[in-house]
Each structure stands twice: as C-alpha cells, then as structure tokens.
Amino acid sequence: MATRRPAKSKTPATKLFVLDTNVLMHDPTSLFRFEEHDIFVPMMTLEELDSNKKGMSEVARNARQASRTLDEIVQSCPEGIEAGISLLGPSSELASGRLFLQTEAINVQLPAALPTAKGDNQILAVVMHLFEKFDRKRPVILVSKDINMRIKARALGLEAQDYFNDKVLEDTDLLYTGTKEIDAAFWEANGKDMESWKQESRTYYKIKGPDTADLLINEFVFQDGEQPLQAWVKEKAGKVVTLETLIDFSHQKNNVWGITARNREQNFALNLLMNPEIDFVTLLGQAGTGKTLLTLAASLTQVLETKRYSEIIMTRVTVPVGEDIGFLPGTEEEKMAPWMGALEDNLDVLNGTTGEGGEWGRAATRDLIRSRIKIKSLNFMRGRTFINKFLIIDEAQNLTPKQMKTLITRAGPGTKVVCLGNIAQIDTPYLTEGSSGLTYVVDRFKGWPHSGHITLQRGERSRLADHAAEVL
C-alpha cells in the first residue's frame, strides 16, 4: 500500500484589513501598524475623514493628519494605485504590506434593514464585496473602534476586530503597582553573599540572586512578620540590586505638613513625593486613598518650608461627570475653580493641621497657601516651560497619551511632575483603562531612575466611602 506524502503546509495568506474612519481618527499612524498585512481604505472612509477635518478638536487634527499621510503614500506611487501602493518606503520599513484604495463602484445587496445611506453600512458593503471577491482564499477583516459596527459585521458573517495597537495592556490587573512583597524564602534565594552598611541613618543591602532580575529601580519591597522591612531599589546592575530602607512617614516626628502615612502604600508615596531625585511620580488608587492630600501636603512642605520649589501648579481635564453646565464666568483661574473642589477640600484638611493660630491665624495661612498655588487650564499649556515648579496633574486618567506627553514635556529644570488618578473612573469618551494616558505613562516610566509609581490600596476617607467603593 503506497503511503501518502504529507501535503506541503501552505504559507498563510497575508490578511486584508479594511479600515473604518474612527481608526484613522483615533490614530493617524495606524496605516503603518499592520506589519506585513495589506490595508484597504473604502471611499466612504475618505468621505468621512473629509467631513470631520474642520475644527480644533483632537479628532479633527487626527483626521487632517490621516489625510496628509494618505496623500504622501499616494504621491510615493506615481505609476498608479490599482495594484496597491507599497508601504515599505512611506513607513520607513515599519510596514511591508500594501495600501489599496477603493477604485471601483461596489454594488452589494445589503439586507433591507441596513439602509445604504448610512456611511457605516456602505463600509460594510465594501467588506462584504471583498469577502466574496476573495472567496475565503484570503482573510478580510474589518478594523473598527465602533462596537456596534463590529457587531453588525459579525451578524453579516464578516470578521471584525478592534484596533489594539495603542493599548498599553489588555488586562489592567497586570499594570505595574510599584510594590513587591518578599518573605524569608526571598532572602534564602538571594541573600547568600549579601553586603549591608549604614549611611546617614539609612541601611543599605546589596543582594544578588534569581529573583532580583525582575526588580525595577525605585520599586518598593516590603516584608511583614517578625522582622518587618520596607525598602526600595536604588541601584541595579544585572542581577545585583541595592536596597535602601525608607524614611518612616507614619511616625509623627516625620510628619509632612501635619500629615502622617496611615498605611504602607501611603508611606511609599510620601517617600517618592519628598525625594528631590524623583522628578516624576504617578499615584493610582480608588476614591479616598489619599492621593491628593498626600501630594498637596508634600508640595506645600517643599514650597513653603524647604523652598525646594517656587510654587505649586495644579491642572486637570475639564470632563464633566454628567451634563455640562455651560460657560463659566471670570478669569482662567475662576473658570477652573468649580473643577478644583478636591483642592479646596484638601486645603481645608491641611489648614486644620497647622497648629493653634485661632481663626485669624488660619485665615492668614489659607491666604498664604492660596497665593502659592496656581490653577491652570490644559488648553493653554502648549509652548509653556515650568521652571522649579511642583506640577500636579489631577484626574490624569482622563488624558490621552498625546495630551499626557504635551503636559509632561512642559517640565523645565528643577520641576517635579505628579500625576494622580483612578483608571476605574474614566469620564472621557473613547478612552478605556487600557488606552488611558495614565496607564501609558505608568508602563513607559517604570524602571527610570528619576520616576516612581505607587498604586494606593486602602481607602482612608471613611468607612462609608470604603464600603461604597467595594459594593457599588
């Protein structure tokens, strides 16, 4: 009996991705993000880009940028576009696929429930045409940020995907927390040739072992039990790391503007906020974990007492939780005042810790504090440089990665930037936990010697707020 020769495995055909307009308006560089696969841009996508290009919003800017990018790609191929345009040159070898533009009228009979007057349905008709044209020999996939569009495509038997390229993490549970718990087994595995010494009331441990390679600079390690330890990684060279013990901000003698750390993570946060070598701090945590209070206490101490910074600048995105209340009267600072309720609430707490000065003393302190805090709108940040300032970006989870870059690059010499936020409370439309600017900077800055991050775990606001955060 003759044995059959195994069939040669065919190399999988490159996929053809059909781009919805919202993908290009979300990320104009998406044209170069599909590696060896081909891209198809329907005429309706170009039409919608054209109708969305007017205005000063980020969507309009992205639409204009996408149109310019498409123009450059088309100009790079003077011989004609019917056979597709190679993306190798225009993308600087980031992508090796081809770009196809719709060059023919496509007449596909859609179900009666899908009126062809709607742009989305015309794009679906193009996807259906391509699906039938290639007759399953080549995967045709619609890429859209619109959930309903993807559901409709799947209902028609077409393949559809979200655009994932800009997502930092699929699962935000994997986001860097800034802390790592160690135990006796850690010391057994990594502490064989340990060196330790004291310097300026701090203890240092130099250790090497299999578990140290995963530690990052400025990551906090802690051990509970009979021999408690709280330290952070100050140096790292391969598998050799140097740990430094922390200042104990939970003790009253080390209070910061009358505030002491109520839990371990708050102590870690204050070590980051009070250290002049750390230029960039990110604090994540649910409502009531003390993000704003700790940051304001640290900033006031370093502006008014130690004179390390000249003033505090506070900003946040003005995204309403409910319906917008319309235009607000007054100067830039007065317009921002309703958004800065968190600042006023925390200043009331901090002003109550400044000692017994009576009503007059407290009023004078409040005026002094307010004179050193400037409230700025995000809209006027382009082109500014902050020198020797303590910049606080509140509600940073509502920023896009591009807005976050714009803000952080305002920092001049001697400026410290602190980002506060809770990625479970995103109010900006189209932003998710995975694509928020706050998630983006936490992931990108981890391990840099002049930045630190802490995810605050325990709420310290009230038993009511803690229970509401858990059960609601």
UniProtKB/TrEMBL annotation:
<keyword id="KW-0547">Nucleotide-binding</keyword>
<protein>
    <submittedName>
        <fullName>PhoH family protein</fullName>
    </submittedName>
</protein>
<dbReference type="GO" id="GO:0005829">
    <property type="term" value="C:cytosol"/>
</dbReference>
<dbReference type="Pfam" id="PF02562">
    <property type="entry name" value="PhoH"/>
</dbReference>
<dbReference type="InterPro" id="IPR002716">
    <property type="entry name" value="PIN_dom"/>
</dbReference>
<keyword id="KW-0067">ATP-binding</keyword>
<dbReference type="InterPro" id="IPR003714">
    <property type="entry name" value="PhoH"/>
</dbReference>
<dbReference type="InterPro" id="IPR051451">
    <property type="entry name" value="PhoH2-like"/>
</dbReference>
<dbReference type="GO" id="GO:0005524">
    <property type="term" value="F:ATP binding"/>
</dbReference>
<feature type="domain" description="PIN">
    <location>
        <begin position="15"/>
        <end position="151"/>
    </location>
</feature>
<dbReference type="InterPro" id="IPR027417">
    <property type="entry name" value="P-loop_NTPase"/>
</dbReference>
<dbReference type="Pfam" id="PF13638">
    <property type="entry name" value="PIN_4"/>
</dbReference>
<comment type="similarity">
    <text>Belongs to the PhoH family.</text>
</comment>
<comment type="similarity">
    <text>In the N-terminal section; belongs to the PINc/VapC protein family.</text>
</comment>
<dbReference type="InterPro" id="IPR029060">
    <property type="entry name" value="PIN-like_dom_sf"/>
</dbReference>
